[in-house]
Design a protein that fits this description.
The structure is a single chain. The protein contains 17 helices and no strands. It is globular and about 55 Å long. 78% of the residues lie in helices and 0% in strands. The protein folds into 2 domains: 173 residues, MFS general substrate transporter like domains (Growth Hormone, Chain: A), CATH 1.20.1250.20; 180 residues, Growth Hormone, Chain: A. It starts with a helix and ends in a 5-residue tail after the last helix. It has 365 residues and is mainly alpha-helical. The longest helix has 33 residues.
């Protein structure tokens, strides 16, 4: 739980400082959007290779070199002097982030297998709590007039101390490696594609909130100060709350009702953001979107794992790749649309995709 909590601390600081970086580099929204896709560009192709390497050396050993490298790479975006450097800095961060993401999830799966406990949903809840903590730290450091580079360096040092100590003290588990990641791509269940359609809308909305929340607040009449980071905090707080309560809600109401209710809440949150006239209204919109999208990805992982008793890791990796495409296409879609329509109106392009997700939500059963 501590590793899941500390891993995204620096990421939370970065998300709350995106608007500051945009201003310092004098980037338009479309230029910023192209730079922001550097992280998914680095993360997506690295996921497969990260799984192969971690299968060979084990997650615990991978932590000891990947966590320090991730925290070092996390400082790089703040020292970029132009759009190109920002793109490659985020691409480097995404590539290293893939190793820590895969490692954490593999490690949690091994914990569940060896100790016969269920911790995955709670672990991801702590991950969201870490992002929220990082964004709150960023707001406080901005109030102390600390630059993005200083904030990312300080948070990186704090995180790496926690992560290295946690890695050293974590149990060294030895289980059979999952060879399904390297198995043939034949026999992929066709049912996986509707599941991707469901989760794609949620990740598109989540990526848009992560990348454009502070920019949205900065452009608003009430924004332009340290409180801009509260948008990310509000969004991630609701993501965290929903993930800690998602298992109970799924048992009480069923996965389809939970998914469709969440996606409808996300649409309501977007409509509020499009028409917001105050900071309270905007923060409510961000909170509703976070509450709505939070459980979709965990539900999709469970649904994908149930499709077949063989090649579960392969199927989940394919679904994850499709889901993360939402993070890849979200920033440029919103960026280019906002240059023409304005950021508020540009958020409306997410709504039709969420409607498609609602339509296919029955496939999560």
């Amino acid at each position: 739980m501590l590793l899941f909590y500390a891993q995204p601390l620096q990421l939370g600081v970065w998300l709350a400082r995106i608007a500051e970086i945009q201003t310092s580099l004098d980037l338009t929204k479309s230029e910023l959007s192209l730079a922001l896709i550097g992280m998914p560009f680095g993360l997506l192709p690295t996921l497969y290779f990260a799984g192969q390497i971690i299968d060979r050396i084990g997650p615990r050993r991978s932590f000891l070199w990947a966590f320090p490298l991730m925290c070092f790479a996390g400082i790089a975006p703040s020292i970029a002097i132009n759009q190109t450097m920002l793109f490659f800095a985020l691409m480097l961060l995404g590539a290293v982030f893939a190793f820590t993401e895969v490692g954490l999830n593999v490690f949690a799966a091994k914990i569940e297998k060896v100790f016969q406990v269920q911790i995955m949903n709670r672990a991801h809840g702590f991950w969201s709590l870490g992002v929220m903590t990082g964004s709150l730290i960023s707001v406080q450091l901005a109030d102390l007039d600390m630059t993005a580079q200083q904030a990312l360096t300080l948070s990186g040092l704090l995180a790496v101390c926690i992560l290295v100590i946690g890695s050293w003290t974590a149990p060294d588990l030895s289980t059979d490696p999952d060879t399904s990641l390297s198995s043939s791509m034949s026999g992929i269940p066709t049912s996986i594609f509707p599941i991707i359609a469901v989760v794609f809308g949620a990740t598109l909305a989540e990526g848009a909130m992560n990348d454009w929340a502070t920019v949205y607040m900065n452009e608003a009449p009430w924004g332009g100060g340290p409180n801009d980071g509260l948008a990310v905090t509000s969004f991630v707080a609701m993501v965290t709350l929903a993930r800690f309560s998602g298992d109970w809600c799924a048992r009480q109401f069923g996965v389809v009702v939970l998914a469709r209710t969440g996606l409808c809440l996300s649409i309501l949150g977007l409509l509020i953001l499009i028409n917001a006239t105050s900071m309270l209204m905007a923060l409510t919109g961000f909170a509703l979107v976070g509450l709505g999208v939070a459980t979709i990805f965990p539900l999709a992982i469970s649904a994908t794992a149930r499709l077949s008793t063989q090649h579960q890791a392969r199927n989940v990796s394919i679904m994850t790749f499709g889901a993360l495409l939402g993070f890849l296409v979200g920033p440029p879609i919103i960026g280019f649309a906002s240059d023409v329509l304005g950021l508020k109106t540009a958020l409306s392009v997410i709504i039709p995709v969420l409607v498609i997700s609602i339509f296919y939500a029955s496939r999560l059963k």
